[in-house]
Amino acid sequence: MHILVTGATGGIGRGICEVLALQAMPELQLTVASTQNGERLEALLQALRDLGVQAHGVVGDVTRPEDAQGLVHEALDRGGDLDALVCVAGASGPGKLADLSVAQWDQTFNLNTRSVFLMAQAAYPSLKRTSGSITAIASMSGLHPHPGYGAYSPAKAALIMLCRQLAQEWGPEGIRTNTVCPGMVRTPLTESVYQDVDTKARREALVPMGRIGRPDDIGHAVHYLISAHASYVNGQNLVVDGGVADHMLSMIPGRPGKAPLKA
Ligand SMILES: NC(=O)c1ccc[n+]([C@@H]2O[C@H](COP(=O)([O-])OP(=O)(O)OC[C@H]3O[C@@H](n4cnc5c(N)ncnc54)[C@H](OP(=O)(O)O)[C@@H]3O)[C@@H](O)[C@H]2O)c1
Fold this sequence. Notes:
Layout: E1 2-6, H1 11-22, E2 29-34, H2 39-50, E3 54-59, H3 65-79, E4 84-87, H4 102-130, E5 133-137, H5 152-170, E6 176-182, H6 191-194, H7 197-206, H8 215-226, E7 237-240
Parallel strand pairs: 1-2, 1-4, 2-3, 4-5, 5-6, 6-7
NADP nicotinamide-adenine-dinucleotide phosphate binds at residues 6-7, 9-13, 34-36, 61-63, 88-92, 111, 137, 139, 182, 184-185, 187-190.
Family: Belongs to the short-chain dehydrogenases/reductases (SDR) family.
Pfam family, one: adh_short_C2
Keywords: Oxidoreductase
């Protein structure tokens, strides 16, 4: 089993890699992609090797078509055909739409949406040979508008549709494509928010499960989607958010158990 993971050195990416490494998948090889060689990539490779996995590191910028091709080709050279592509690389880009520059809009779409198209296209011949799968990390922001987050919600919404379309176009070739929508997950991307104890507590209070998500929560969802247990799951979006995105109606005043509305 050979899996290529982009954004592997980030919080969720590393969590996914570690969950996959712990699942005792037969002859697992993980190729982990980062934007740069260095301590973080080396530390991840060492951690995965310590878990008994054959791990390879590849470097590139997923927003660049030539790098996407290069990442896949290098992965194939190192570990043979891909059984799964997991696209994690992404980032939100705060900004109000009224002020957002075209360059910021393009950057957010290039990183969160176009990169998955580029990686999927580069991996397509290999995934076709293995009847492999693609799993992309979207966001609850792709399902609900996220005011103040610039083009992030539109970009993740487009990513979910891109993957549904890939599922239709490549399903007949044996390639399954799905997305995972994390809710609030504590990672380097969001760490500054959770440093504030009050903000952390207020965020936790919004989640029916009473806690902020962990990278391994997303890792287990990805493991399921790339496993044989999901062999009939194609074009789906798995929300892993502790129930937070659905809790909007519980905020309406006047429901049973809450203080009555004043006349
Ligand atoms: N954390 C959350 O609450 C949350 C919630 C919903 C969705 N998500 C999504 O989950 C994914 C991972 O988020 P995270 O919280 O783990 O963030 P993170 O810790 O900041 O990791 C982001 C990863 O993306 C990679 N990356 C960024 N730009 C890249 C580029 N141009 N080319 C290649 N790789 C690039 C980074 O690689 P390097 O480190 O090598 O530069 C990093 O590994 C993102 O798609 C994010 O939108 C996160």
